[in-house]
Amino acid sequence: MQTQHTMRSFDDELKYLADQIAAMGGYAERMVAESIEALIQSDAGLARKVVADDVFLDEKEREIGERSVIIIGRRQPVADDLREIVGAIRISSDLERIGDLGKNIAKRVVAVTEGRQPMRLFRGLEALADLALTQLKEVLDVYASRSIERIGFVRDRDEEIDAMYTSLFRELLTYMMEDPRNITACTHLLFCAKNIERIGDHATNIAETVHHIVTGRQLPLERPKEDESHRVVATPAK
Amino acid sequence: MQTQHTMRSFDDELKYLADQIAAMGGYAERMVAESIEALIQSDAGLARKVVADDVFLDEKEREIGERSVIIIGRRQPVADDLREIVGAIRISSDLERIGDLGKNIAKRVVAVTEGRQPMRLFRGLEALADLALTQLKEVLDVYASRSIERIGFVRDRDEEIDAMYTSLFRELLTYMMEDPRNITACTHLLFCAKNIERIGDHATNIAETVHHIVTGRQLPLERPKEDESHRVVATPAK
């Protein structure tokens, strides 16, 4: 039989996992924000910092994975508690991936800076990043507070991100056609935009995992809509 | 105490998981091969089939996740068995993602076909896809056979994929600069190339997970090299 002490200690272990996820979340959020800042300010130093920072999330993901397996082995949790732990593994993997995407944006800063830097190119990207960061903050709140009634809102915002990404995709293609000297920078910016769109997807995954942790039920597989950028065809003016 | 029957039945459950992973692997492999074929042959029908097929992997991933949690809850496995089950969750998630990447390639078929289709554009992509598919087949074999001595080879091939992707990135940028009418098709092909490069990464993840299942140890975090496409800067001829 479990003693009161063991019970409290198991709760502590679950709390430890949740705290680590919260730490990863805050860290990933900062990395993404800094990668966008580095891009817009052409700040190669800040970009290098973001690239270096990424190892923290890689290590934390591993730590959470190993710790979770130890907890499962030692505590033999069932139902809610087990979902909580498996959910922590999943969420840490989404957050690690968000860090990778931020790192990938940061790595393109130098190539974008070497080409031309028409400031108008960055405007759409900045708006897209703002939306994705709001999304990420929101799902981290949902995880911390377990207020799953906000998940519908998260899915709606993901659609908004997808639509904005598709229009940015079209815009960047147009700039490339206007002037071949824009091609290098715009191509890297297209990949940055795609990375931001993916950050929105991972944030949405996190929301869905929280829903599963709390309710034990999966949300329907098909999300309402996806980005439509794969359909975009632009033709040169003449 | 566990009876002989229960023991055998637990083995059956583990075998069931491994069989599901093998089925997912074969399915993902076929999706990727067909997406490349659809792209090169401009086969919109085959592309639609690949897009529709993806739901199978989504459902299988969920099924493996749910089944794993039930097995853990009921069997309370430790050490090797627990690593095996948590490994199955991870691998199913990599395979589901590989299917997504194949689907994403297939979705671009129509946009690539509408623009110009210089066949030379596809050559590099085909070679890259061949390498990634060989990689995927290899890691599925490593999973089935647990022959982890082949993992070094898998990591080496991942470097080769990254190098080939970087050179393809540069080549596609050059085509865009040569003729703005290539821009739409080449942009979509750049994303296809990136998807293939990511398929190689996920295959490598799977190899690393198998290493962990078999040995209980993680491989060092830093992989030898990463793709260098983020550095590529191309300038128009005049």
TrEMBL record, chains A, B:
Transmembrane segments: none annotated. One of its GO terms (cellular component) is cytoplasm. Gene3D superfamilies: Phosphate transport system protein phou homolog 2, domain 2 (1.20.58.220). The keyword Nuclease does not apply. GO terms for biological process: intracellular phosphate ion homeostasis; negative regulation of phosphate metabolic process; phosphate ion transport. The keyword Transmembrane helix does not apply. Signal peptide: none annotated. It is found in: Cytoplasm. InterPro entries: PhoU, PhoU-like_sf, PhoU_dom. Residues 22-109, 127-210 form the PhoU domain. It holds the Pfam family PhoU. Keywords: Cytoplasm, Phosphate transport, Transport. SUPFAM superfamilies: PhoU-like. Belongs to the PhoU family. PANTHER family: PHOSPHATE-SPECIFIC TRANSPORT SYSTEM ACCESSORY PROTEIN PHOU (PTHR42930). This is Phosphate-specific transport system accessory protein PhoU. It comes from Nitratireductor pacificus pht-3B.
